[in-house]
# Entry
Amino acid sequence: MVIKQNRMDRSFAAHKNEYLEKAAEVMASGNYILGNEVENFEKEFAAYNHAKYCVGLASGLDALQLAVRALGIGEGDEVLVQGNTFIASIMGISINGAIPIFVEPDEFYTIDASKLEEKITSRTKAIMVVHLYGQISEMDTIMQIAHKHHLKVIEDCAQAHGAAMNGIKAGHFGDIGCYSFYPSKNCGGFGDGGAIVTDHEEYARRIRMLRNYGSEKRYYNEEVGINSRLDEMQAAFLRIKLKYLDEVNAQRSRICGRYLQYIDNALIELPKIRSQHGTVWHQFVIRCQCRDELISYLDKHDIQTIIHYPIPPHLSKAYAYLGMKEGSMPVTERYAKEVLSLPVYEGMTDEEQDHVIETINKFCTEK
# Structure
């Protein structure tokens, strides 16, 4: 039995007929760009997130870069962001000429709110929080700091579809929430896609314009925009995915609940959660000081894993110009050397879960 780290085909199989019927409907419509499916998905996704506006985009990175731009953040401005994130979070900042200021993560793998104020300078314009692995950041404290220092707040919700804290959905705490619909996400499409949600009409209007070559009216371009439109087919599929998102999140919660309950190995550090309702378990991330041996051992037992993420952005070649060296962010760097994501996916059977649990619990005695 080979257990992949993710199985996106199971999600398709669960509602195969709906997807096929919808695909045929969209193709027969003859309307493939910014049509009814995108408009309806934007309304439905906004309502799901308790937001006034949603703008569909071509990717999560586009959502981040356009959010930064719409907030008026640009050349020389500073944005605080956690160090242990996917590099797209950082690119969304730097593409606009702004400077990412890295902050260490807390024990929940989200930005350490206690370390924010020491990083704020006269050039700081915003805080970008990343609800990493599906867990909401410490938003009450973060919002208090943002208000105190008159900072904008951008939420990277790429891994937190449906996560909520005290009744507030991810993406609805700050000024703009940014989503990715990459296929592996809890609400993933069948290709690239993204969106922003916001309660601010002007931000939504500007991002809607920027996504379409800087034009609100065809061929009348107000500024230099980009081509970043969520297409009709992906929007149609995402409308189906959205219908079942809470069900999928509940299923992932049950799987990860079993992992938390039954994985028992002194070499394995299990994830901590701030609140059972504040995470949607996009990933189940353990830590192990002998990670390479663990990966090799699991692979021999046909269990596939993945590292999110092996190279912290501040040590990547892409950001070498920032001049940050190894050792400058010890917590972020330690996590990068120890984290490992176990298999979690829609349709994962009890037998598959049991195999993962039993195999990990035997690690060390059999390695």
Summary: The CA atoms of residues 255 and 349 lie 9 Å apart. The chain has two domains: 8-243, 245-361.
